[in-house]
Amino acid sequence: MNSTKIIRKLFDSRLKEIDLYATQAGEIQSRVLTRLIKEAQNTEWGKKYDYKSITSYDEFRRRLPVQTYEEVKPYVERLRAGEKNLIWPSEIRWFAKSSGTTNDKSKFLPVSKEALKDIHYKGGADAVALYLRMNPESRFFSGKGVILGGSHSPNHNSRHSLVGDLSAILIQNVSPLVNLIRVPKKEIALMSEWESKIEAIANSTIQTNVTSLSGVPSWFLVLIKRILEKTGKQHLEEVWPNLEVFFHGGVSFTPYRDQYHQVIQSPNMHYVETYNASEGYFGTQNDPADPSMLLMIDYGIFYEFIPLEEVGKENPKVFCLEEVELHKNYALLITTSCGLWRYMIGDTVKFTNNKPYKFVITGRTKHFINAFGEELIVDNAEKGLSKACAATGAQIVDYSAAPVFMDEHAKCRHQWLIEFAKMPDDLDKFAKILDDTLKEVNSDYEAKRQNDLALQPLEIIVARRNLFHDWLDSKGKLGGQHKIPRLSNTREYIEEMLKLNFKE
Fold first, then answer.
1. Residues ≥6 apart with Cβ < 8 Å to 93
2. Dihedral angle of Cα 483, 489, 491, 497, to the nearest 10 degrees
3. For residue 136, what pLDDT is reported?
4. Cα torsion for 238, 243, 247, 249, to the nearest 10°?
5. Residue 367 — pLDDT band, cuts 50, 70, 90?
6. Which residue among 258, 277, 296 closes a domain?
7. Burial of 419 (0-12, 13-18, 19+ CB in 10 A)
8. Which residues contact 5 (CB under 8 A, 6 or more apart)?
9. I need a surface site. Which of 204, 362, 391, 406 has the fewest CB within 10 A?
């Protein structure tokens, strides 16, 4: 008997609620904002902005400032010191350590008990519900799921408050019922030393009937390759014959897609993109033929959007969900049941549909190259690399790019540092296709490249094996949700990487 068919019926009422996203998005989001304002009206923050007198979104938008982490940080430090009722009424005992590398100093984002329940765990459950709708013959619950996460540690040496990767916080607090279908056991999942953790997870799961994977594609690939090494198998379905789905997020799947198809060749394998950040769970892919994700609008999150050209202005234009335009880049603002109010998380998105609202992640507000007016974003880079890989048989482990402002010949260009899992059959051809594709998808880049006047052809430097792994290791950022800065407008990161590139 297929137990999954019985269990999936439990999701029917929830799926009916999600279906309302297509017709009632404005009303749903309005209710979310009203609830959040009401719950926080007696906090220090709520009193500061007189939440009791806010009766409309327009009033909320006029009264409250847009915030970055620098504005939130003083409140976070007080929360970590044990103060209460500052930005959210319930006690904040968990802090998600930022996974980004754009600042050497970590961000500590508050995670309330309400957010765990009505954002993060709700997102995970909905991802499963939507997957089962897409795959009615699934046997998802006949085996266990491997969840690859980070670690946590005491906050300021307090036993009652902890900091760590969001994934570790979720594993630590997960329902005992979920633990019945999850591996590895908690003490392994939360190990802090990355290499030892990979070994322990591999050893403890090889003999398990695994049906699903959840985690960051780049780090999960390390685990998969180690499992194949230990078992002597060529493909993961030889180890886990009932494996059927990978819920992935954190970094773009595009550079890793071919490598996954190489190590998992089962026709029954599915890939579902999710958008679960330290700040909240925002989206889930709900159609295997459509790479865009469904915006989850009835969680403890109210969404706003800043047009990309407005980012950095003193008083940027800000729009609610119903005001956005399709196919336009926006920086994402969130208001959440963690006490983040009009918080700019640093990601940029573009909507592909509004009935219901579906979107793709296009990059980071800090991960771009605009040294010469070219406005190159991560979405452009991923499209270019994907095309270059397809044409040359290449596979990419990781990459980072930055401008060369002027060389000894007074020429400017972009420099790409790429670690290949499989080298292109012709590196010059790879570079040309990448360059040509960037021209196709970005008119500003094309204009700057015209006749090589403002911008010379891009340069590719082949990174040695494990370069990016070693760079993250040098920063103490191995594993979990940590990411490589794909594009940078300065040479800070690439210079550090280049120095390591010549060290084995």
1. 113, 160, 161, 162
2. 20
3. 94
4. 0
5. confident
6. 277
7. buried
8. 136
9. 406
Q: pLDDT tier at 102 (50, 70, 90 boundaries)?
A: very low
Please tell me whether residues 270 and 391 are part of one structural domain.
no
Domain contains 155: yes
Q: Which of 226, 248, 277 is the last residue of a domain?
A: 277
pLDDT tens for residues 74-100?
999 999 999 999 999 999 999 998 754
| Biggest CA pair distance of the chain | 72
The 10s digit of each residue's pLDDT in 447-462 is 889 888 779 999 999 9
Predicted local distance difference test score (pLDDT) of residue 166: 86
For residue 490, the model assigns a pLDDT of 86
Q: Classify residue 32: in a domain, yes or no.
A: no
Task: State whether 256 and 390 are in the same domain.
Answer: no
259 domain-assigned = yes
Q: Do residues 242 and 210 make contact, with C-beta atoms less than 8 angstroms apart?
A: yes
Residues 149 and 260 in one domain: yes
In this structure, what CATH number is given to the domain that contains residue 233? Answer: 3.40.50
Kindly list the distances between the CA atom of residue 19 and the CA atoms of 12, 258, 298, 402, in Å, as whole numbers in the listed order: 11, 33, 11, 43
Torsion angle, CA of 278/284/290/291, rounded to 10 degrees?
A: 10
- Whether 235 and 126 map to the same domain: the answer is yes
Question: Is 148 in the same domain as 260?
Answer: yes
Report which secondary-structure segment, H or E, holds 111.
Answer: strand 108-111
Higher pLDDT, 329 or 411: 329
Domain residue limits at 167:
115-277
Cut 0.70: pTM above it: yes
- Give the containing element (helix H, strand E) for 271: strand 270-277
Which residue type is seen at 8?
Answer: R
**How many CB atoms within 10 Å of residue 326?**
12
HEC secondary structure over 334-358: EEECCCCCCEEEEEEEEEEEECCEE
pLDDT of the residue at 101: 41
Q: What is the mean pLDDT of residues 124-151?
A: 94
Query: Is 324 inside any structural domain?
Result: no
Tally of structural domains, the chain: 2
